[in-house]
Amino acid sequence: MNWFDGLAALILVVLAVRGYSRGLILQLSAVVAVGLGLLGGLYLHSAAAAILPDIGHPVLKLVAGFTVVFVVVTLSVNFLARALKTAVDALLLGIVDRLLGAVLGLLVGVQLLLLIVLLVGRYLPDGLAWLENTQTAPLLSGVLDFVLPLLPDHFYEFFELHGGSPGEWLEPLDDLRREGEQLLDDVRQDAI
Predict the structure, then answer these.
(1) The domain containing residue 61 runs over which residues?
(2) How does DSSP assign the chain, residue by residue?
(3) How many domains does the chain have?
(4) Residue 98 — very low, low, confident or very high, per pLDDT cuts 50/70/90?
(5) Does some domain include residue 162?
(6) Residue 160: inside a domain, yes or no?
(7) pLDDT value, residue 175
(8) pLDDT tens digit string along 162-171?
């Protein structure tokens, strides 16, 4: 086990604890708030700018309109999420919300680690050799083997146009995946 394995475990633990403390509702509301705030700002910035006082340059007025809409929508979604969380806690479902938040935190951590492994394997000169010395990379390679077939076809088309298909990226990691499977088999045998 090297330092990357420890860092990976730390990332997973921190994000799971953070997810548990915030809960699923508040974590999802942050994503929804930003998304709806951006959409609202894009579509309603000119209407908001029309009711704002003149601040000089018309572009500044549009930026101010976007900012006002973004902040109002984000705060509104946040308020609704906190009200929903209060209702969930009152129904004694707070522990379910927290456990699902921890699961979401773990999923975010796995995605972050997948991104790190893909970037290290793709862009660092000795990245693949370095990844061979970790126990985390083979496990993540197995996750990629499971997830990639679930992605839409245009995912592959995009990567073929921009630097090769994801399958080409993963070919060198197949040995790591096999080593990870062997490690899991050994652990299972030791447990029996």
Answers:
(1) 3-125
(2) --HHHHHHHHHHHHHHHHHHHHHHHHHHHHHHHHHHHHHHHHHHHHHHHHHSPP-SSHHHHHHHHHHHHHHHHHHHHHHHHHHHHHHHHHTT-HHHHHHHHHHHHHHHHHHHHHHHHHHHHHHSTTHHHHHHT-SHHHHHHHHHHHHGGGS-HHHHHHHHHTTS-HHHHHGGGHHHHHHHHHHHHHHHHHH-
(3) 1
(4) very high
(5) no
(6) no
(7) 63
(8) 555 455 555 5
